[in-house]
Amino acid sequence: MAIRVGLNPLVLVAGRTAGATILLLLVMLIFSRRYLTIYPVGLAGCLLAGALNGIGSLFYYASLVRIDAGLGQLLFTLYPILVALLLYLDGRKPSTLTVLRLILSLPGIYLLTQANRRGVDLTGMAFMLVAALLYALHIPINQRVLFEAPAPTVTLYTLLAMTVVVVPASLLFTHDPFAFPPASINPLLGLTVVTFLSRLTLFAGVKLIGGVQTSLFGLAELLVTIVLAQWILGENLSMQQWAGAVILVATLVLAAVDRTPPTPYRFRGWLYWLRSPLSDASSIASEKGEN
Predict the structure, then answer these.
(1) What is the distance between the alpha carbons of residues 64 and 178, in angstroms, rounded to a whole number?
(2) Which of 140, 161, 136, 135 is nearest to 38 (CA)?
(3) Quick one: 51 exposed, middle or buried, by C-beta within 10 A (0-12, 13-18, 19+)?
(4) What's the CA gap between 72 and 130, in Å, rounded?
(5) Contact predicate 139/267, CB 8 Å
(6) pLDDT in tens, 129-153
(7) Residues 6 or more apart from 108 whose CB is under 8 A from it?
(8) What phi and psi values does residue 127 have, to the nearest 5 degrees?
C-alpha cells in the first residue's frame, strides 16, 4: 500500500527497520532493561546476522525491480531448505518428518507462485537467491546465540545491525530519502509494528523449536500474503495457486504434529565460536564427568 502511493522501496525498508528497532529499544528501556545485557561474542553474532539480513533485504528489493513478484517469492521461499542445509553443516540433523515437509513444500510453493510472467531477468533471479541465502544464513547464526541469550536481546541487536545497513543504503541510493507521501504514513507505521512483532516472535520460535521448524512455519507468510492481497489489494488466486495453498497447509499441519525435539549438535560445527565461554566450560566439565 505504501509503495502504491509513491513511497520508494528502499525508504520503506529503512523506515520500517529503524522504526521497529526504536520501538523495541523503548519497550526494553521502560519494562525490561535486563534484556539489554549480552555476552560479547553473542553481540558479535547478532551484529553479523543483522548485517547479513540487512544486505539481503536490499538484494530482495533490488530483485523485485527486475523480476515478477511471484517468481521472486518462489525463489526467496526456498530459504527453509537453505536453513536445513546450513544447520546440517553446523552439526544438527533434521528429523525425517522435517525432511518430508521440506520436500512437500516445494511443489506447494511452485504452484502458489504461478501467475502471468514476462521474460525472466537472470540478474534479478540471482539477486533474489542471494537474498534468500543471506536470510537463511542469519537464522542459524542467531540460533547459536539464542542458546545463551533471550529472544528480545537477540532481536534488538539484530535489528540494530540491520538498521545500520539499510538506512545508509537508503540515503545513498535514493534521490530524496526523506520524501514520505502523506498517504504512506499509516501503512509505514503498520509495517513497523508488524516488523517489531514478527522479528520478536521469529527469534522466540528459533529459541524454542529450532531454526528449521521456525522457517517451515514461516512458509505461512505466503498464505497470509495471499489472503490479505485478495482482501486489501483486490488480487485473485488461480486454481493452481489454490492447489499450492492446500499443499502448503498440509505441511503446516505436519508441523503441528511433529513433536521431535531439536537434535543435539553432532560436532562443534562452523558456528561454534558463537557459544559463550561459560557454556564451553560447562561442556568440558560435563565431558570430564562422563569420562
Answers:
(1) 22
(2) 161
(3) middle
(4) 11
(5) no
(6) 899 899 888 888 887 788 788 888 8
(7) 244, 245, 246, 247, 248, 250, 251
(8) -60, -45
In which residue are the cell numbers 534468500 written? 132
Q: What is the spatial distance between Cα 142 and Cα 273, in angstroms, rounded to a whole number? A: 12
Query: Is the distance from CB of 74 to CB of 240 less than 8 angstroms?
Result: no
- Say how far residue 211 (Cα) sits from the centre of its chain: 10
Which residue, 14, 23, 1, is CA-closest to 179?
A: 14
Pairwise CA distance, residues 7 & 14, whole Å: 11
Length of the chain: 291
C-alpha cell, 53 = 539480513
Contacts of residue 36, defined as CB under 8 A and 6 or more positions apart, other chains included, come to 28, 29, 153, 156
Q: Count H helices, E strands: the chain? A: 12, 0
Name the grid cell of 7.
513511497
- pLDDT tens for 66-104 read 776 666 776 787 777 777 777 777 776 777 777 787 788
**Gap between the Cα atoms of 26 and 31, Å rounded:** 9
> Exposed/middle/buried for 116, CB within 10 Å: 0-12, 13-18, 19+?
exposed
- 151-187 residue pLDDT tens: 888 889 999 999 999 999 999 988 887 788 899 899 8
